[in-house]
Amino acid sequence: MTVNDLRTVLLRDLKGLQRQVLAYPDDRAPWVDVPGLPNSGGTLVLHLAGNLQHFVGAVLGASGYVRDRDAEFSRRDVGRAELSAEVQRTIDAVDRALYGFDAARLAEPYPLELGGKRVGTGRFLMHLVAHLGYHLGQIDYHRRSTAPTSGAVGSVAVTEL
What we know:
Layout: H1 3-23, H2 41-58, H3 69-74, H4 80-98, H5 121-146
Helix pairs in contact: 1-4, 1-5, 2-4, 2-5
């Protein structure tokens, strides 16, 4: 696994997230509560954007981003255009941080302690890829539950690898 592999998958999935946001039929749909789902699609979009802008953009790329995790879960009624813009900022931050990233840093400890332990930067980036994919699937399910005729948007298209 190389830095470019991790960057490619993160950017592919973030572009899929962008398509998910734009496939909601209106600005209300991302915020509809679906029984059995703990978070709305809009909440998950804000969470993923904050997570990646912090852990990749700020910590690895020194972007200066300051995360407000509480707001990721408390903000509501953010329109699709603003959600889409936040995803685009995340795409830009991840791309800047990982383009030309020194591969030797993957073997180094991630700069922050996570859950009371230290993990390697490469392992943590793999975790972030999995975390994004997990929530991307939840967003797809949420969107299809709130807009059943919206169909597939190719979130994890193998052709984008």
